[in-house]
Amino acid sequence: MTTLTTTWVRELQDALGPDSVLTDPDVTVAYARDQAMLAEAGLPAAVALPRSTEEVSAVLRLASRHGVPVVPRGAGSGLVGAANAVEGGITLVTTRMDAVLEVSEADRLAVVQPGVVNKTLRDAVRGSGLFYPPDPASYDWCTLGGNLAMNSGGLCCVKYGVTTDYVLGLEVVLADGRVLRTGRRTVKGVAGYDLARLFVGSEGTLGVITEATLSLRPAPQPPVTLVASFGTSAQTGQVVERVVTSGLVPSMLEVMDRTCIRAVDDMLKADLDRDAAALLLAQSDSGGDVAAAEIAALTRLCEEAGADFVHSTDDPAEGDLLMTARRMALPALERLGSSLLLDDVAVPRSQVATFIDGCDAIAATAGLVVGVVGHAGDGNMHPTVVFDGADPDQLRRAYAAFDAILELGLSLGGTITGEHGVGTLKAEWLEREIGPVSLSVHQAIKQALDPAGILNPGKMFRRAAVGDLGAVGQLAGR
Question: Counting CB atoms within 10 angstroms of each CB, which of 361, 411, 420, 437 has the fewest?
Fold first, then answer.
């Protein structure tokens, strides 16, 4: 360490206690990156593990005074490099702030610290007959602070929406250490700008969330599940459109392409239809006759579209088995190659079939495997490029396919990310989607709240856009 680094590290240890500051490189390397395989990551000079808002404030005051970059981090479940460390900076980990502070049945809300695991909150409110809907695939280990920072979604978004739809208020520590409380506990409230929503999805670039007041819903009923296979993706797309136009609102509506079907069948030996172009899985959690009627109506839509096979069940255990095929799509694809580029593109629901077919064409051009699985009900697709990361030519073709998929999504009126965020993987694409005027507004907000640029530098914006803290956050190989 340099003398300057040694000085601020010592101050950090004095502020938090030596057991809350990690500096051994053999230990801090475990906090260097999230789940994005190919996003560049540095090695933090220190990992801070605060236990309170006051300690987070102390970290940021120190960092602001010394000009040290700070990367907020939860469990590291992200998929775009948003929590990847900056070389020589501080990685601020919120997992020790893991208390569910309040559950109010009367107000249908919970107050939580950022280190609470998503599933922990679900379990905590279940006894009150309540439900926290956002359900990222990593819900059993991802933290709510990370969910808030990335505005995470999940399988239930088609009916329940994403994280921001459940945020009533936030406590946020700003870059200079000041503590901002914004939002409310009431159902309605329009006093001032909606600052709480500003911080949701900001990927740790505007402040560190230290407390959240979240709205809850009544617990859903046991689901009725449907699975259907189709000979063409166009038939699947027809069903998705008809679901929307007919007014059906299933709690899940998921799709898998042929590549994913075969990968999952190889892994699970589930006797899936390996010749199907697409598999559609749906659930209704409305309960009783309502759920039965919704699934019956969806069955008719599948049959009218020419489904080769349709099956439904009200047995929760059988439903869980059917949904396992969908949840195991990514692990199954991981078995096909040493590296993955997992994408996250949302398109209008009328373009789902066109997007799936386009990804198939991109795979053929690249000469690589691309499997598509996603949330058909809201148009959020997850094309995954599979390749050998040790082969430079395959790496080049994988990046080309990744970019082509993003370009395809935008050309269909879509977005470069529906729920995973921008991070470093897509920083160069943000301006292409939102345009120069919107980008300048983003930069102005960033400048107002973090004028020194210490909060998560290199994330969301290309380096030239937000000051100069060194060459960090650049995508390897680009």
Answer: 437
CA 283 – CA 225 distance, rounded (Å): 4
Measured in degrees and rounded to the nearest 5, phi and psi for residue 321 equal -65, -40
Tokens 């990968």 found at: 263
Pick from 117, 116, 138: which is nearest to 210 by CA?
A: 116
Cα–Cα separations (whole angstroms), residue 107 to 114, 130, 168, 185: 21, 11, 11, 8
* Average pLDDT of the residues in 450-470: 73
Angstrom CA distances, 303 to 19, 238, 349, 350, stand at: 61, 11, 20, 19
pLDDT band at 67 (very low <50, low <70, confident <90, very high): very high
In Å, the largest CA–CA distance within the chain is 72
Q: Are 136 and 148 in contact (CB under 8 A)?
A: no
Interatomic CA distance for residues 244 and 350, integer angstroms? 9
**Domains in the chain, please, with CATH?**
100-218 (3.30.465.10), 224-411 (3.40.462.40)
Phi-psi region of 454 (alpha: psi -120 to 50; beta: other; left: phi over 0): alpha
Burial 116-126, CB ≥16 within 10 A → b, else e? bbbebbbebbe
State whether the Cα torsion 313-318-324-325 is positive or negative: negative
Measured CA to CA, the distance from residue 72 to residue 426 in angstroms comes to: 19
Q: Residue 272: CA atoms inside 13 Å, Cβ hemisphere, count?
A: 34
Render pLDDT for 163-190 as a digit per residue (tens, 0 to 9).
999 999 999 999 999 999 999 999 999 9
Helix (H, G, I), strand (E, B) or coil at 387: strand
Q: Per residue in 348-363, pLDDT tens?
A: 999 999 999 999 999 9
Burial 357-392 (b: 16+ CB within 10 A, else e): bbbbebbeebebbbbbbbbbbbbbbbbbbbbebeee
CA distances from 326 to 36, 62, 133, 285, 339 (A): 21, 46, 18, 18, 20
Instruction: Look up residue 24 and give its two tokens.
Output: 């051994």
User: Is the model's pTM score more than 0.85?
Assistant: yes
How far is 297 from 312, CA to CA, in rounded Å?
Answer: 11
Number of neighbours of residue 413 by Cβ within 10 angstroms: 12
Tokens of 310: 């349709």
Tokens of 53: 């808002």
Q: Which residues contact 165 (CB under 8 A, 6 or more apart)?
A: none
CA 28 to chain centroid, in Å, comes to 24
> Residue with structure tokens 């690589």?
368
pLDDT in tens, 304-322: 999 999 999 999 999 999 9
Compute the average pLDDT of residues 193-219.
97
Cα torsion angle, 160, 165, 166, 172, sign: positive
